[in-house]
Design goal:
The chain has twelve helices and 49 strands. By secondary structure, the chain is of the alpha+beta class. Helix 8 runs parallel beside helix 9. Keywords: Glycosidase, Hydrolase.
């Protein structure tokens, strides 16, 4: 082991207006206070403060916070900022960040900075019930107390791997830390907490606030999640159609037959990679792109050796890029630069939004790409460990993290269906064809969701169509992620930070899709799901309408192969596209549906734009607020005017409300007076009907101008 050295006694302290220089022998440190009570702490044993990452990760430094003051407390110097006090201890040099009262610790070093020839470590006091999240994609986990995580480039695609890790963590003590570096790190969340990178320097940004606030401030520094095109939230398909070593010689335009298959089987498809595989080129690119667009799908390419023809390919119709590990496998700044380059290549040569996938990345990749957990083989265990992986990645501001539906290398109809069910609630999904073999026959088996026949085709169609209908909800969450840094797929601990059970073993293998859906995947060969934890509140079974009062644990939940355990929080307002929608492009824009779970007073704001261009960044978008008031004998739904404009915005549309759990109405009153009770299945008819089997009231309104508010009153 290399010899270690600890920081000694403070020998100099000076500074003002938010910037302070500190020395302890040969060690030099620098503290800079930044906006929103952020601070940057740098230290170097040789006295030379360097910044190897430059502007690659942090493109724009936050504004300095100059309104600071100092005081001498005897044992330490205090630096007082707006809402925090940084203590600089003298004997030996240590740091501690406190709240404005200078009594409540946010974080406190338990020992001086320690360094060797190969790294520098910071040690912090761990709180009695302090929890830790982050580290980017950590395969198989989302919570890290009493564990050690690695933050580095990894080629382990399975549980325990960390190929999309990030040098960032967030604590329930009210802070988060980002290490501004490309050096690998090890974070030990024992007692004390010991974190370090493999470099003889420290460059750390500290953020304060609750979990969501810290995630927002971290992503404001390294890059907020990108806003995807709406077709990027539809399912993708990937295979090699030229020089395919696994499936024999084919032609690029053979991809069109597969795209036709999606349409013929009533399954949505947003995009296709048509050269997915090593040594697989392409031909007739423009014609292939045109053919895909007839099926409302966009053309994508995989690259394993750079982007030498990007301009020409984008002009030929390429709107999706997947970066292969053969190119970006070195990770760190190399992968981050490639991701930025691929996204910019699409945007510099078209009016589209860049949509990029990559399997190895670093801090900042959320601004440019979907992070994909790599090549895995199918098993029940494969399904299990991915659940906390993608939810946990959200705690590092990674809004789009996913794995291949049914894996890449093996195929089984039942496991494929189970995997697709819950991944329908991830924002981005893809099937990887042409590489798998059937687990039973050992023969090659492609992965399109209709190939296994019944009952699997119908089950897979059910969830793909549900995913499509929920795109207004998921797209609004994407807009929220681009604004706040918080993605759609969330561990329960993010939505329920004061609930200890949200960190328990039962909550590990379930997640929230936005604030409204609780998804508890089936990850074993069973038709009964035990141990479903429902937090405080009212929860409605999406399929049966049965309600549960949380906190509670549901055991013995019947989950035959066609049933994903899925619960909706009381008070939820969920926008949906009409039944039968198969594409964002040809959807019925004259109708918008809302799935309502009335409880007290709740509100929801829908986000809309053209879905494909970058005009939203110049303000071409619209929002529409919906309020639901459920009190006593009446439930009132207030739909506000759609505010804002964008290309293709409908001037008017009808609304279809499905209202759960309110009992049979006595009267339903719309903007023009009482609505008739429906006695026909005519989808164009306006009025209402009640289904006693499900307890759902369905209300259809006439077409309404989108720039005018209206209300519907349900009287019981």
């Amino acid at each position: 082991m290399p010899r270690t050295t600890d920081a000694g006694d403070l020998t100099a302290f000076s500074g003002s207006q938010g910037g302070y220089d500190i020395t302890a022998g040969t060690l030099r440190a620098r503290v800079d206070f930044l906006a929103d009570d952020q601070l940057r702490l740098r230290a170097a044993p040789d006295g030379v403060l360097t910044d190897p990452a430059g502007s690659t990760i942090v493109r724009t430094q936050p504004e300095p916070q100059r309104d600071t003051s100092t005081f001498d407390a005897g044992d330490y110097y205090g630096i007082r900022a707006r809402n925090v006090v940084l203590r600089v201890y003298k004997h030996p040099l240590r740091f501690g960040l406190y709240r404005a009262d200078n009594r409540t610790a946010i974080w406190q070093e338990s020992a001086p900075l320690r360094w060797s020839t190969g790294g520098m470590r910071q040690s912090l006091v761990r709180g009695g019930d302090e929890q830790f999240f982050g580290g980017g994609e950590q395969n198989g986990s989302f919570s890290h107390r009493d564990t050690t995580i690695r933050v580095a480039n990894s080629f382990d695609w399975n549980e325990g791997g960390y190929n999309n890790s990030q040098p960032f963590y967030v604590s329930t003590a009210g802070y988060g830390v980002f290490r501004n570096t490309f050096a690998p790190g090890v974070y030990d969340f024992g007692s004390p907490v010991r974190t370090g990178q493999q470099e003889r320097r420290l460059d750390a940004y500290y953020f304060t606030g609750d979990l969501k606030t810290v995630i927002g401030r971290y992503t404001a520094l390294v890059g907020k999640p990108f806003m995807p095109p709406v077709y990027g939230l539809e399912p993708g398909d990937s295979d090699c159609y030229l020089h395919n070593a696994n499936r024999g010689e084919r032609h690029t335009q053979d991809a069109l037959k597969v795209a036709d298959g999606y349409a013929q089987n009533g399954m949505p498809l947003g995009w296709m990679l048509v050269n997915d595989g090593y040594g697989c080129g392409y031909e007739d690119l423009a014609a292939t792109g045109a053919g895909l667009r007839k099926d409302h799908a966009q053309l994508g390419l995989w690259t394993q050796n750079g982007l030498p023809n990007q301009a020409e390919e984008v002009k030929a119709g390429v709107r999706v890029r997947k970066l292969d590990v053969a190119w970006v496998g070195n990770g760190y700044d190399f992968a981050l630069n490639a991701c930025d380059q691929a996204k910019a290549g699409i945007e510099d040569n078209s009016d589209a939004r860049g949509f990029v996938w990559l399997p190895v990345s670093w801090a900042g990749a959320q601004r440019c790409g979907v992070l994909w957990s790599g090549d895995q083989s199918l098993s029940w265990d494969y399904i299990r460990w991915q659940i906390p992986t993608y939810a946990g990645a959200t705690m590092s501001g990674i809004a789009y993290n996913t794995g291949d539906v049914g894996s890449i290398y093996r195929h089984d109809p039942k496991m494929y269906a189970r995997d697709l069910q819950w991944k329908a609630f991830l924002p981005a999904v893809m099937t990887m064809d042409g590489w798998a073999s059937d687990l039973t026959t050992k023969q090659p088996h492609d992965q399109q969701p209709w190939l296994d026949g019944e009952p699997y085709t119908s089950i897979n169609r059910k969830y793909l169509q549900l995913k499509e209908r929920l795109l207004p909800y998921m797209y609004t969450l994407s807009a929220e992620a681009a604004r706040t840094g918080v993605g759609a797929v969330r561990p329960l601990a993010l939505e329920y930070p004061d609930d200890p059970a949200a960190l328990g073993p039962q909550a590990t293998y379930e997640f929230m899709a936005g604030p409204d859906f609780l998804v508890a995947p089936v990850y074993s060969d069973t038709e009964v799901r035990d141990g479903i934890y429902l937090p405080k509140g009212t929860w409605t079974d999406y399929w049966t309408g049965r309600t549960y009062q949380g906190p509670t644990v549901v055991n013995g939940y019947r989950a035959p192969l066609d049933t994903l355990p899925l619960f909706v929080k009381g008070g939820s307002i969920v926008p949906m596209w009409p039944k039968g929608t198969l594409s964002w492009e040809n959807r019925d824009r004259t109708e918008l549906d809302y799935d309502l779970y009335p409880q007290g007073d709740t509100a929801y704001t829908l986000y809309e734009d053209d879905g494909v261009t970058r005009q939203y960044a110049q303000g071409s978008s619209a929002t529409q607020r919906v309020d639901v008031h459920a009190h006593g004998a009446a439930t009132v739904v207030q739909v506000g005017a759609s505010e804002g404009t964008y290309a293709g915005k409908p001037a008017a549309r009808a609304y279809r409300f499905t209202v759960h759990g309110q009992g049979e109405p006595r009267l339903v009153v719309g903007p023009g007076g009482p609505l008739p009770r429906l006695t026909t299945d005519d989808p164009a008819a306006t009025g209402w009907r009640y289904d006693p089997a499900t307890g759902v009231t369905e209300i259809r309104t006439p077409s309404r101008p989108t720039d005018r508010p209206f209300s519907v009153e349900i009287i019981h």
